[in-house]
Amino acid sequence: MKTSENGLGSREEYQVITRLRRCGINDLSGGYIIETETGFIGMASDRVQKGDAVCVLFGCRAPLIMRQEGNCWTLIQSAYVCGLMAGEAIEQFRNGTPERRFRIV
After folding, report:
1. Neighbouring residues of 83: CB distance < 8 A, sequence distance ≥ 6
2. Is residue 52 part of a domain?
3. By residue range, what is the domain housing residue 43?
4. Which of 10, 30, 31, 81 is placed for a possible disulfide with 42 were both Cys, Cβ 3.0 to 4.6 Å?
5. Which pLDDT belongs to residue 65?
6. Is the pTM of this model over 0.90?
7. Distance between CA 62 and CA 41 in Å, rounded?
8. Is residue 102 part of a domain?
9. With contact defined as beta carbons under 8 Å apart, do 72 and 6 qualify?
10. DSSP calls for 12-73
């Protein structure tokens, strides 16, 4: 994941971590807090690398972490991402976020 240029302030970071912990995500879960270049915060495993993409695919219950390899994409894992778990991505799509097609290998 790429880090956003703005970053979060300490109060915002605390609020995000508190929300993640309320969802049962904690230090014992084996997860890592991630931040996308657009500022979304979430949780994923250590398999995620800087430059991976957070993708919302129609029909999936959670965002997916995918890695581009040449002209194809590899599915790495699903992830918890605040702001993309309850249909918000569909709303963004309806408001003009462009659709992208993937060839998954």
Report:
1. 40, 41
2. yes
3. 10-94
4. 81
5. 94
6. no
7. 14
8. no
9. no
10. HHHHHHHHHHHTT--GGGT-EEEE-TTS-EEEE-TT--TT-EEE--TT-SS-EEEEEETTEE
What does the alpha-carbon distance between residue 8 and residue 20 come to, in Å, rounded to a whole number? 15
Element (H, E) at 89: helix 88-94
The amino acid occupying position 86 is A
Residue 2 lies in a domain: no
> What region, left, alpha or beta, does residue 7 occupy, with left being phi > 0 and alpha being psi -120 to 50 degrees?
left
Q: In the chain, how many domains are there? A: 1
Closest by Cα among 40, 64, 51, 74 to 1: 51
Its sign, for the CA torsion 33, 75, 1, 88, is negative
Q: pLDDT, tens digit, for every residue of 49-87?
A: 999 999 988 888 889 999 998 888 899 999 988 888 888
The answer to whether the CB of 76 falls within 8 A of the CB of 66 is: yes
